[in-house]
Amino acid sequence: MRHTSRKTNVNAKQCPLLSNQKHQHRRRLRGVSSTRTRALKQHALAVALTIAFAIFSSLSTAANTALDQTRTYHLTLPEQTVAAALTSLSEQTDIQVLFPYDIATQHQSTALVGNYPLQQALSILLLNTGLHGGLTDSGVITISQTGSNVDINQNGKGKRMNTNKRKTVLATMVGLFAAGGMSATMAQGQVGESARAQNVLDEIIVTAEKRKASLQDVSIAVTALSGDRLENSGIEDSMALEMVTPGLVMSGNGSWGFVTIRGVGSTALQGPGTDPSAAVYIDGVYQSRFTSALIDLVDVAQVEVLRGPQGTLYGRNANAGAIKYTSKEPGNDLAGNVSASFGNYNMRKIKGALDIPLVEDELSIRLSGTTTERDGFTQEITQGYDVDYADLTAGRLTVKYTPSDSLTFVLHGTAINDDGDLMGYKPFVDPAGFYAGAQQISDPREVAYDFPVSENSTKTRALDLTVNWELANKNLTSITAYTDSEVGPWLHDSDGTELAGLNGGRVRTDGTVGDGLRTSNKTFSQELILASAGEGALEWLVGLYYLNDRPSWFTGLDLPQLSLGLLSFDSKADIDAYAAFGNLSYPLTDQLSVNGGVRYSYEKKEFTTSQLWDLSVVRGPEVREESWSEVTPKLGLDYQVSEDVLLYFSWAKGFKSGAFEATSFAVDPADPETMTAYELGAKSTFSEGRVRLNLSAFKYDYKDLQVRTPNVSGTTIFPILANAAEADISGLEAEFSIMPSERMRLDIGLAWLDAEFDQFISIVGITPVDVSGNKLPQSPDFTANVGVEYGFALPENIGDLNFRIDYYYSGEKYFDQFNEDRSRQESYDLLNARLAFTSQDESWSLAAFGKNITDELVMLDVSTAALYGSGSIVRFAPPRTYGLELNYSF
Q1: Short-list 6, 353, 366, 338, CA closest to 191
Q2: SS3 readout for 494-529
């Protein structure tokens, strides 16, 4: 048994003012900047590796202190469930206990009052339960079931077992309790803090392969983040996940989010005929639209980021990888929490959750919600209103019904109203272009608009039901979901200047404003999964998937200077996607296993487009239909070097469906994207569970990339979605988690990436441009994240203090295929910090936090449309923010 302490069930730099003169200066400095960037990367890597080596060296010489088994303990343990008794035993002895929670809750313990040696106490407590316990050399009590695969020898040390047996035992060990940590332990697979007392890292359980398994046993590059880890790192929304995940880059444009993993992603607002390259799942439900990439992380139990094409189990449009969000389930006791946060920019946030058991151990519900208001980071100086402000309200209901030990129903209902403005367009004006007369405002947080308002509204309603049925040596899972979302009307000044240039929407003759961009989406999905659950050598899984997606898109663009009227495109799609998939793993020897899978995908899209002037149809509706199918296999080998070191190799193919351009007619759809990926990785744990090191190297052969590029028809230039010929991607990633002492934890993530177009002829104006060799958008060649957490108990039993600081470095990156200076984000650093005080009984806490402490100016999105000449329109990430958070639990 791997030594564990707990399990987590985890179901700006100043942007340059872009002008022609500065472009020339930037080009002269580019060689110097590249040299400086390489030096910074080398320095950051050297520092990180030096820290890791020093800590690892000190840990490797640390002595393992075994407990004195002859010592007696004064115990007061009434008759209760074995789970409760073992929890109390841990608290009264300050010894860590590892036991199968689900089994322990089914038995009653014998009462125990008096002074007893530990082994005698265990024997009495577990009398007639079918359980027995022992003490490992490193001082951990382990409880197992008579006849199970765990053998306890005379000195209490678990015998080594083969990989298949170890996975079976691991699947049952879902309870872990110990006293003496910096905060109270928690039950039923949630995070406990007892690892600190034993000075070891958590054992993390993930569902990356659609079954529960240890993170260290899954041959996929996965970053798994618990809700506590997200909170301590100040990660409150999906945009901030890149700060703690190697290889992940997040960007956004209004309510639309773009995910890039290892250089693979979708970087342009492309309409209802296209799909994201990274799959987003919420409680097992696929989110089909770009709006789902930007979410607030409220009541989240865990996030898993799967890197690399997931063509077998997550086959629909998962070329880049997948992000899986898992929400918290209802507890069996009446309990809850509420928190209030206050910060600069007049930020106010209230969130809370309440567990209500209706029928003991059978029916319970969880209510959670949040409301957030914040003034804008950007000020409109002409009319004096805020831009990019926050106004969000969201609620969620979870119902869990367990009519028997083998059958579970979990129902989620979600409602989100987001009336904030997330744009804040900042123009960098071309002094010789269409907007030459516009103001050049030096303050990046100030703008001057001619459009009277800037509004955005997003409404989402979602319902999903997951049914788990445990059959004889098999598990059947059904996930049924329906989502209805609307965005808009999205009214904004598209050129970002005080000139009456390009607007999203228009001012009507009666003085009202309307007819901006509106989108909506209705999605139904059904997935069925049948998986093995026995103790046989062969692990297998088969599944069926269906999705019906009906997105729509209505644009409203106005050019008041030209008096051309309101130009609109009304586009909608009706998408049916079907898939059948299977996956298996089989041990060839005690150390070598083979795994593989295959997925067949079929997709049909019916796309309808109409063009309107002043809301009257002038062309269309034009209906086009296309279908695609693909077989995406995966094959891998796992080699268990030792109980704590796994090597793996995988070969896989990915597939992303073909796509229609939303604003074009008589244009063939873009072909599907395909990818062949090779990955070699290692997962290892050292120093009795105190050091975790995961490595991966990968190479992608990426073909037919869907890239938005100008198209010329006569004298008219308009953007279309087209296929770049191919791209080459390769890279290395490393993740360290180190616990040098019970008070300190260090997390390090490093990613090197070489991602460039191999062949691609694009167009600038009406001139073909060869962009072969250019970097793929949103693909920095090096990123690093470092997090340090330190905590200690205050004197006089006042409570605990916990401090965490997170640092993130990104190399330069571009936002389009042309790699021009105006679409270039220089390398930058981000720094977050959080200091939290928790009361001794853990009923309340107070935290001070700061984000982007050094106030770096970072671009999130850049538009370089022909109308802007050599200028651009930029949206910036938030500036420095800080505040206080008060939390109360009951």
Answers
A1: 6
A2: CCCCCCCCCEECEECCCCCEECCEEEEEEEEEEEEE
- Give the separation between CA 373 and CA 371, rounded to whole angstroms: 7
How long, in residues, is the chain? 890
Average pLDDT value for residue range 412-417: 95
What is the reported pLDDT for 137?
Answer: 57
Within a 10 A sphere around the Cβ of 196, how many other Cβ atoms?
23
pTM of this structure? 0.79
- Using CA atoms, how far residue 782 sits from 41, 85, 467, 549, 552, in Å, is 7, 50, 42, 37, 38
User: How far out from the chain centre does Cα 610 lie?
Assistant: 36
DSSP calls for 293-309: GS-B--SEEEEEEEES-
What does the block give as tokens for 353?
């959750």
> The tokens 């910060």 sit on which residue?
343
Quote the CA–CA distance of 544 and 527 in Å, as a whole number: 6
Q: Mean of the per-residue pLDDT values for the chain?
A: 82
Handedness of CA 497, 499, 505, 511 (dihedral sign): positive
Write the single-letter amino acid at 875.
R
What separation in angstroms does the CA of 445 have from each of 13, 253, 376, 386, 421? 14, 17, 9, 10, 15
Predicted local confidence at residue 267, as pLDDT:
65
Q: Give the integer Cα–Cα distance in Å for 710 and 728.
A: 23
Residue 183 has pLDDT above 70, yes or no: no
Residue 454: pLDDT band (50, 70, 90) is low
Per-residue model confidence as pLDDT tens digits over 697-741: 999 999 998 887 766 555 555 667 788 878 999 999 999 999 998
As given in the structure block, the two tokens for residue 496 are 């970002």
Residue 728, phi then psi, degrees to nearest 5? -115, 135
Q: Which domains does the chain have, with CATH numbers?
A: 71-198 (3.55.50.30), 325-889 (2.40.170.20)
Q: Which two tokens stand for residue 833?
A: 């910090």
Sign, Cα dihedral of 637, 641, 642, 648: negative
Angle, alpha carbons 598-600-606 (nearest 5°) = 155
Instruction: Name the residue among 632, 523, 521 with its Cα closest to residue 286.
Output: 523
| Crossing angle of the two packed helices 118-125 and 82-93, in degrees rounded to 10 | 160
Buried b (16+ CB within 10 A) or exposed e, 536-569: eeebebebebebebbbbbbbbbbbbeeeeebbbb
Q: How far is CA 701 from the centre of its chain?
A: 25
Indicate the burial class of 518 (C-beta count within 10 angstroms; 0-12, 13-18, 19 or more).
Answer: buried
What are the phi and psi torsion angles at 262 (to 5°)? 55, 40
- Per-residue pLDDT tens over the stretch 631-683: 999 999 999 999 899 999 999 999 999 988 887 787 888 899 999 999 999 99
Cα 335 to Cα 357: distance, rounded to the nearest angstrom: 9
Tokens read off for 843: 């009923």
pLDDT attached to residue 699:
97
- Give CA–CA dist 198/196, Å, rounded: 5
721 in helix, strand or coil?
strand
| Exposure on the CB side of residue 846, measured as CA atoms within 13 A | 2
Cα angle value 136/138/144 (rounded, 5°) = 30
CA–CA separation, 397 and 362 (whole Å): 17
